Amino acid sequence: MAVVTGLGVATPPTVRQEALWDGYFRAHFGDRGLARRIFAGSGVRTRHATVDPVTEDIAHWSTARRMARFAEEAPPLATAALTAALADAGRVPSDLGLLAVVSCTGYGTPGLDVALADTLGLPADTQRLLIGHMGCYAAIPGLGAVSDFAAARGLPAALVCVELTTLHLQPPDEDPEQMVAHALFSDAAAAVVVEPDAPGWEVLDIAGHTETDARDLMTWRITDHGFRMGLSTRVPDVLAGVVRPVVEKMLARNGVDLAEVDGWAVHPGGPRILDVVAAELALGPDALAPSRKVLAEHGNCSSATVLLVLRELAARPGDLVVTMAFGPGLTLYTALLRRSR
């Protein structure tokens, strides 16, 4: 059985949502009432910014310049998160048989995985896997990949999610989808160490579901000015129709009922998505408190976010946890974890 034995997080400086609005986005969106309401209703109080637009406006930077900045900023953040996860697991870099790196916000070859291998002094025979452009749900299939490796090879593996969404500030326009994206997204790195047969969070199962007919409702397009988010208001409605069947199917094949789940690590894509998940699964009023806390304190950090929520749950009682995240496709991924002593 593959087990999550260590978890680490690293974030760039914290910025207040109100300061971002007053200092930059009010003017960026022409002080439009809709943008003001979206920022106020985002559920976000603070975020983390590799690039703070109040002091550094990159809205008109080329994609090449943004990728150069990613290559500069991402490795130290990823190194800090992975180092913390290894320490939490009581491991050192040379113990790893596989390093998997997830990002949808920056690319280059040799990539972040090679930079990490060099910085941490990983042995030359350490295997590497780079998972790119899957979006907010990518941590869960990434967890599946490192768990399969740990279980099959009997060696520790690590997953690192690094997302620098602030590098993709778009030129000003009147698109409500851009208002939502700029009100929610944030930067962070999060890492987990997975080992065979050890105390921690056993990875019991992973399930995925993609609604290809809804593929245009959430997009992440590469443009001349960075990556541009497309986010339809219909996304929560589509998710409402699939959340319960997908979760119940995964639980059923593990002999578990919904009522037996002790904790929910749900990716906080936004307040409405959390409301939909709570309603469809008939969850109690406090079930998604960890997700709402992460949204308020960190914003939406794309693939790293669900690991931030799992960190919140680690300090709470209960042994059976469901993690869940959503992204382009339109895709839902979920995992069943059990705490082992």
Identify the CATH architecture of the largest domain. Answer: 3-Layer(aba) Sandwich
Describe the strand arrangement of the main beta sheet, using strand numbers.
5-4-6-7-1-8-13-12-11
Write the element-wise H/E pattern from the N-terminal end onward: EEHHEHEHEHEHEEEEHHEHHHEE
Give the name of the CATH superfamily of the largest domain. Answer: Thiolase/Chalcone synthase
Radius of gyration: 19 Å
CATH topology of the largest domain: Peroxisomal Thiolase, Chain A, domain 1
Descriptive account of the structure:
By secondary structure, this protein is an alpha+beta fold. The longest helix is centred in the N-terminal third of the chain and has 27 residues, at 63-89. The protein has two domains: 2-198, Thiolase/Chalcone synthase (Peroxisomal Thiolase, Chain A, domain 1); 201-340, Thiolase/Chalcone synthase (Peroxisomal Thiolase, Chain A, domain 1), CATH 3.40.47. Helix content is 37%, strand content 26%. The protein is built from eleven helices and 13 strands. Helix 2 packs parallel to helix 6, helix 3 (63-89) packs across helix 4 and helix 10 (289-298) crosses helix 11.
Strand and helix layout:
Blueprint: E1 2-10, E2 14-16, H1 17-28, H2 33-40, E3 46-48, H3 63-89, E4 98-103, H4 112-120, E5 127-132, H5 139-153, E6 157-164, H6 176-184, E7 187-196, E8 200-210, E9 218-223, E10 226-231, H7 235-240, H8 243-252, E11 263-266, H9 271-280, H10 289-298, H11 305-314, E12 320-327, E13 331-340
Parallel strand pairs: 4-5, 4-6, 11-12
Antiparallel strand pairs: 1-7, 1-8, 2-3, 6-7, 8-13, 9-10, 12-13
Helix pairs in contact: 1-2, 2-6, 3-4, 10-11
